[in-house]
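Reviewers asked in the last cycle whether our approach scales beyond single polypeptides. To address this, we selected a multi-component target totalling 600 residues and predicted its structure end to end. The input consisted of the following lines:
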Amino acid sequence: MNKAEKRFVRSAALAVFLLLAVLLGVINGILFTMAARDADAVTEMISRGKGTFVRENKKKAQEMPPDMQFGQMGPNSPEVRSSVRYFTVNVGPGEIAQVVALNVNAIDETTAENWAIALYASKAKTGWTHGTYRYRVWKQDGSTYVTVIDQGRELLTAYRILLFSVCGTVIGVIVAYLVLRLVGRRIFAPIEEADRKQKTFISGAEQEFKVPLTVISAETELLERAHGPSDQTASIARQVRRMNGIVRRLGSLAIFDESAMTRERFSLSEVLEEEFDRARPRFEEKGIALETNVAPGILLTGSAETLRQIAGELIENALKYSRTKAAFSLSREEERIRLTASNDTELPAGSADQVFDRFTTLSNAAPGSAGLGLAYVKDAVKAHNGRVSARSEGGEFVVGIDL
Amino acid sequence: MRILAAAEDRDLARCVRELLSDAETAVDTVFDGAQVLSAVAAERYDLLILTQSLPRVPWETVAVRVRATGMPVVLLLQETLTARRLTEPAFNDCLALPFLPSELIASVRSVTEKSRSDSVFAVGAVPVAVSSFRLGGAPVTAAELDLLAALAAGEAVTDDAARPYVQALNAKFAAQHLPCRIRYIIKEGYRLENDHE
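The resulting structure, written as structure tokens, was:
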């Protein structure tokens, strides 16, 4: 998998994960909220029955409130009254606990009283206690009562759904990842193929141009030797020199070969200081004020040679386009290393993003410019897991590199 | 002086011959690796100029065998010149294609003059005989010899083109544990320094 394919698969798998997590998270949230609400409806019903469900006449179906009729489900089911396990404790006005009803198997009277006192002391009106028990603290006739119901069976269903949701999400993401890898290969194969063909074409063209250019310039020289120099031979020589420059740049810049890069820990500050200092006379010659601000002692793991080339391209760019001044700076900002190159070039409006595109030259490009330098910088920075950015504002063009 | 020029492209081979031929220099042309080896075995030449694309016998094999006879070799380099290419050179000088006629003439002059030179200078404690094209146990190119001679004379070198040679020479110092290194001094240029200084 190449980097773009990896990024695609990772972000698509992350999107699937987020979708499943949000969807199932909301469903489970609603389920647990509803479980609490249903339990509260039951404890409220018990509080209305003064702490208990009483069945007075076993020969006659019990009289139910209008919302609790035959066939209803959940807390409105008439059978709730016989299926709910609960206890109610009167904690009285003076905290002397007295069990009002104890319809639960796992808890004895003393435990029920202790729970009730603790829940009363917690000052909350309703809530969950001891995992699966829902309680309500209520008042009647000057006394305070605590009703606790066991919701274990109801919560078991909700917990099962939660477990299935988590497993479903994990399985879903794994399946999505595997499918995306297969699909990703299909999506990216044509793109990779096009990129490979472009590189093959460039390197083929570069190789194919070298011998003819050499022969043309040699033949021109031989013509001049035989017949003396003329405007025509001088023009051929000039154009050949220009082509030579482009072909040499094609060779070194069109294809950034990450596999040929040797990585080492080196002082980026020293490398850049040297590159900027070596270029200083060329700036002076062109009357461009050069300002450099390189923070000392900044180390980087990567290819020193590639960073030299990056600096070289930024320098070439500044030499070509600066009108009166150019500036370079290197600084460390927290975990990131920032290299900035700025000069007083006016870029055509809205074209700052295009400067990194290979073979793209803007309307203000210098003659002989092939649109390779900053494209190389972008590829080389990417190989160091960095980012490039460019902006043009107020008559200033700034390239920023974060490493 | 007799020069053998080898290139698969016949126009290129002819151009090299015509550019270099004069009253004192004769140039023969051949078009593949096998022809180079048989020509060198049959005749005595002062210099071999060859391109990287040679049919039948690869240029590296040809160059190594020819250099072993003591005959200098100038390579017309089709790939981009890198410090890595310079670490174990099978050539005495290389000239990246496309080159200008003046660059070819200068390269040939530089290599032939050095191969006949009796000048010796010292890098650290290591004597360098120019005609041997060697720094201790490592082969060096004509451009590297020029750079070394300038640095050994205490000069600071500011030439931008020196960079790959600086890197290659530092690699050769390190490989042989020679206690010197070429460093860049801000506002001066490249200088040869002894490591223990």
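Chain A touches chain B through 28 residues (CB under 8 Å). We regard this as preliminary and will revisit it once experimental data from Aim 1 are available.
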